[in-house]
């Protein structure tokens, strides 16, 4: 691994698990605050201060400051008593959270003092410009040639916005038939509902005077919603997709889950079957969601195969909108882009990663199917990507990217499109997005992250690498882990080889073929590794958990369940498996020596938890 | 005005227009940061720091810190060059923004270091608890007996969530007819679509085992959307209502604007006419929006009369859901609540306000019709209220409140309702709201504000009072203002007596009866009072502007246009009036001596701007 002085050192970008960089943080914070205070002081220096020294000496002033301090004290106590130590280098192995980038924290703190509102350029010239730049950076990350993006409050809303795009675009040909029939003459309703997004955008662009009338007759009018067809999401579907279908008015009855394989990735053969069956009934497909980094498994759907299927179906006159939900995994694409924003050939990937210090070891961490899936994201119409997940930016910062900037006119308000002079920044961003008022500080925060860590292999790629390598260490560790408690032997089994940086795993008592008992054991481990059993601050190992149940997952978990030694019948009886779940976001567990230090501690902590659990069992069975 | 030492002193709660309290801010900030750093250092003290002194001395570390400083420098320069001086005591008279509460800034900065995510209790125990408390505080502010509320990213989304509630609730009786017909036997479709929210909630509660099936057949399924009827919003409608109707799938074709009177308040007679006409055609009313603090005028719709109309209509079997969009004016309700959370009788209001220091002068500032409107908010099903507007909390912090906590089960996900043990906090808040991931820091920020300034006349009431009194001073100032430029006399005319704290106004050249010319003049004043003409930092008077055009406003502006001396014909010819607009949020302009100091400066600045505008006119006409 190269360690040239010009390389980015990730350890300089976090406050640190032991606040090692706390003084750097404080120094920069104070400098920035001073710059803001100076700005206030020097604004119209001819104006005298309103708050006088006399007033500041008054009783009411002092009492109010005291009151404020009391309130802040209570907040401090509550925060310190009941917060999750995401910052730890190696004791938190649960939800997708970790400490966040120092430059983002600082930029947020600083920009917040101005309280800009990015809903309108006028309310936030500086941060509106930053959000526009971030949007283009997102588009470059997806290799979109003519894309656009913006920050969204969170991934659920970005998904909803993606569905809004799909719904309104899909309805445009029907609107054209009503408003400008000559534009789509000769097309059947089926053909109108199977036009590609590009065709639709081209047609719309060809009639600039009619755009407003066509939009007014689109799905936004309330018409034709029932005609637009089905919305297909992988079986691993995050509940935000159900909410989105509910809210957008197409309805849950139109959501069809697509089975996933035993790696929890969308099964493209099943997808094709469903699509062809629907087409045979003349039911259109509104769109299909591919997930890049599923919430519970970190699985990466085969976006390449989904895009290829779309090409095949096109020959049969079938089209679907493709949205990639990369809320979690989106920043992962940086690992594949070189400093010229070109996608690195797979055969060079391992060497480039080692050379650039993405991984500390010269190993193949990235599966070729994952590589192919990432590459094909550029073929999707829209992508959800959350800076507050793998962007290591503090909450709330989600994002959406669209492939074709023209798409934004389909959901926009106001007949006259007003832009900032000399720029392509909308004067009123709120008219082009789902949300209204939004913190300018968020844009500053994401912008700071992107400008310290460019969205390629030399920037964010290194951070992604640290997380991925840490997850592989954890995976290998678990793979060889077992415990003895009394006369019981308890083995640990990871669920799948990680597509990205998530490791699911179970504890199994050897020789016990009761799946329900195993589920109970894992739930107990979770209870002892979370807030459920008291102080989080004092807990030496923390994790999260999830259930895979037949109603949602079908038989996808069966292969794993069988491997554990449970029969098909036992699976049908219990109908679910409880697994523990670690999104390995800590940036510190990539180095072997760091990991090994914590591995020992984790072992001890788990041994202790298991002993408590089995001791409790004995007590219960004695009663 | 009382000035006891125990009173809150608002001047202690802001950094100050000249950063007068900058050192207090810094001291508290550093204390809090130290508390956080100490928390990290003392977490598992047996773990050695990962980031070593050796590493911190490395070239790559130093270079990375330098890179971070470069990026922060650029952000600092951009922020200082292109931000709006909301913090000024008396030079910004435009958009609804001002400096924000110091306790909120501090709480945000602090809580952000933990990066809690309020989507789930597990990810943010401390701040989830704070959000739950804030929700109940919102409910008390609206005098809801059994209400609930939560923080939303912004008012547009809160409005969308309100419409989501209305849509899904309205559809429940149709779903009951399908799933549990015995529950609604004998009711016609018209009757089903005119049941009150309370009746519907009571019925739903009566069949606990059927709730999930009924919900599954509700509007969330995609069924019956077209049957739910019309959504009525005042003519002053914010575009967020159009977006919401688009997104929620009922469609823009179902949005009916209700005319406003010449005070820009919803005309309840017109509302009744529309409702009765729709009812005569058997078209149901999905719901009606009342606005408390319209975006462009600060107008307060007569919520009391709307609620009374609903009672009258009930006798004729007509019902509509009532949502109050108090995104802007919601916190204003604090001015009417005493310290026991009782609504202060109108006859006592003036004296209580003077006694509590809400106003510096013992005057009638609050109109009785405004008082009545605020009081009646408790009769609405849901209310939008934005802490980041009149809550003086930094972006982004919106909010929604519901009258009946049972309503949240109508939009919730997951069959099993999981709550935190011993509390009524949902384990997964994301399943009960529109959004997903959300910053815990926002909750800390709003909580801090509410706990320093309770939501009654002695807390937020004082802050509201400072803003309202400042707006009256500005109104009176403009009312008597005129300028001489060469041989022209230019008079200023405020639009209406402020319902709340907003003052719209126009410049008019005396004797010039060309409305187009007046619009141009006002647009020029705006250009010279905004970023359009260069540096905002150096501009001595800043304001915002808006247009009232016939397509949106009908003839509501005509009375004002006539008063200015323009004929009806001239109004029909030009079809719009451009007005300047000041949301007076500065908390410093309530005191007479402060205002007078700035009034002189504003006069001078405006004189200068007008002279430039008229000089340019001459140049143009000479060419």
UniProtKB/TrEMBL annotation, chains A, B:
Q: Which domain of life is it from?
A: Bacteria
One of its Pfam families is Pyridoxal_deC
The Gene Ontology biological process annotation of the record reads: carboxylic acid metabolic process
Keyword field contains Metal-binding:
no
| Cofactor(s) the protein needs | pyridoxal 5'-phosphate
- The residue ranges of the L-tyrosine decarboxylase C-terminal domain are 470-610
- Where, per the database record, does this protein carry N6-(pyridoxal phosphate)lysine? 389
- Report keywords, A-Z: Lyase, Pyridoxal phosphate
User: Cross-referenced Gene3D superfamilies, in alphabetical order?
Assistant: Type I PLP-dependent aspartate aminotransferase-like (Major domain) (3.40.640.10)
What's a Gene Ontology MF term here?
Answer: pyridoxal phosphate binding
Q: Which InterPro entries match?
A: GrpII_AminoAcid_Decarb, PyrdxlP-dep_de-COase, PyrdxlP-dep_Trfase, PyrdxlP-dep_Trfase_major, TyrDC_C, Tyrosine_deCO2ase_bac
Q: Decide whether keyword Kinase is in the record.
A: no
| PANTHER family for the chain | PTHR42735, PYRIDOXAL PHOSPHATE-DEPENDENT DECARBOXYLASE FAMILY PROTEIN
User: Which NCBIfam families does the record associate with it?
Assistant: tyr_de_CO2_Ent
Full protein name = Decarboxylase
Q: Which organism is it from?
A: Enterococcus canintestini
């Amino acid at each position: 691994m190269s360690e040239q002085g010009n390389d980015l050192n990730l350890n300089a970008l976090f406050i640190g698990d032991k606040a090692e960089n706390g003084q750097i943080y404080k120094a920069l914070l104070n400098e920035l605050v001073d710059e803001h205070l100076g700005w206030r002081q020097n604004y119209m220096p001819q104006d005298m201060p309103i708050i006088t020294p006399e007033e500041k000496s008054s009783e009411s002033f002092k009492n109010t400051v005291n009151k404020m301090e009391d309130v802040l004290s209570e907040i401090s106590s509550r925060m310190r008593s009941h917060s999750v130590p995401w910052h730890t280098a190696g004791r938190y192995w649960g939800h997708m959270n970790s400490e966040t980038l120092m430059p983002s924290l600082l930029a947020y703190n600083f920009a917040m003092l101005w309280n800009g509102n990015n809903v309108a350029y006028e309310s936030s010239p500086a941060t509106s410009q930053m959000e526009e730049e971030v949007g283009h950076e997102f588009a470059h990350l997806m290799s979109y040639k003519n894309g656009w993006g913006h920050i969204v409050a969170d991934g659920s809303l970005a998904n909803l916005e993606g569905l809004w795009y799909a719904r309104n675009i899909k309805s445009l040909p029907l609107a054209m038939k009503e408003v400008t029939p000559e534009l789509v003459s000769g097309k059947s309703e089926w053909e109108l509902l199977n036009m590609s997004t590009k065709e639709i955008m081209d047609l719309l662009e060809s009639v600039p005077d009619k755009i407003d009338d066509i939009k007014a007759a689109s799905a936004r009018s309330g018409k034709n919603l029932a005609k637009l067809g089905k919305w297909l999401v992988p079986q691993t579907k995050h509940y935000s997709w159900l909410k989105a279908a509910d809210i957008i008015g197409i309805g849950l009855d139109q959501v069809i889950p697509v089975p996933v394989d035993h790696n929890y990735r969308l099964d493209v053969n099943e997808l094709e079957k469903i699509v062809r069956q629907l087409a045979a009934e003349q039911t259109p497909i509104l769109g299909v969601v591919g997930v890049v980094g599923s919430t519970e498994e970190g699985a990466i759907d085969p976006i390449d195969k989904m895009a290829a299927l779309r090409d095949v179906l096109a020959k049969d006159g079938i089209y679907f909108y493709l949205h990639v939900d990369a809320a979690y995994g989106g920043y992962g694409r940086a690992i594949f882009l070189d400093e010229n924003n070109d996608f690195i050939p797979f055969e060079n990937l391992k060497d480039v990663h080692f050379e650039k210090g993405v991984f500390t070891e010269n190993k193949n961490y990235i599966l070729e199917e994952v590589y192919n899936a990432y590459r094909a994201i550029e073929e999707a119409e829209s992508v959800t990507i959350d800076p507050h997940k793998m962007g290591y930016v503090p909450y709330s910062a989600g994002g959406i990217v669209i492939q074709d900037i023209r798409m934004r006119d389909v959901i926009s308000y106001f007949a006259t499109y007003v832009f900032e002079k000399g720029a392509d920044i909308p004067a009123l961003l709120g008219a082009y997005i789902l949300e209204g008022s939004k913190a300018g500080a968020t844009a500053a925060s994401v912008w700071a992250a992107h400008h310290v860590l460019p969205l390629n292999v030399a920037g964010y790629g290194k951070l992604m690498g640290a997380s991925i390598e840490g997850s592989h260490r954890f995976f290998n560790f678990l793979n060889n882990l077992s415990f003895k408690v009394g006369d019981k032997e308890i083995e640990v089994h990871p669920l799948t080889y990680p597509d990205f940086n998530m490791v699911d795993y179970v504890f199994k008592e050897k020789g016990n073929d009761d799946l329900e008992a195993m589920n109970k054991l894992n739930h107990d481990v979770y209870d002892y590794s979370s807030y459920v059993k008291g102080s989080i601050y004092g807990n030496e190992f923390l994790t999260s958990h999830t259930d895979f149940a037949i109603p949602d997952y079908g038989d996808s978990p069966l292969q794993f369940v069988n491997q554990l030694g449970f029969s098909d019948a036992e699976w049908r009886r219990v109908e679910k498996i409880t697994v523990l779940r670690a999104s390995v976001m800590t940036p510190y567990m990539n180095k072997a020596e760091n990991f090994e230090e914590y591995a020992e501690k984790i072992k001890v902590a788990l041994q202790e938890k298991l002993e408590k659990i089995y001791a409790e069992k004995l007590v219960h069975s004695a009663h």
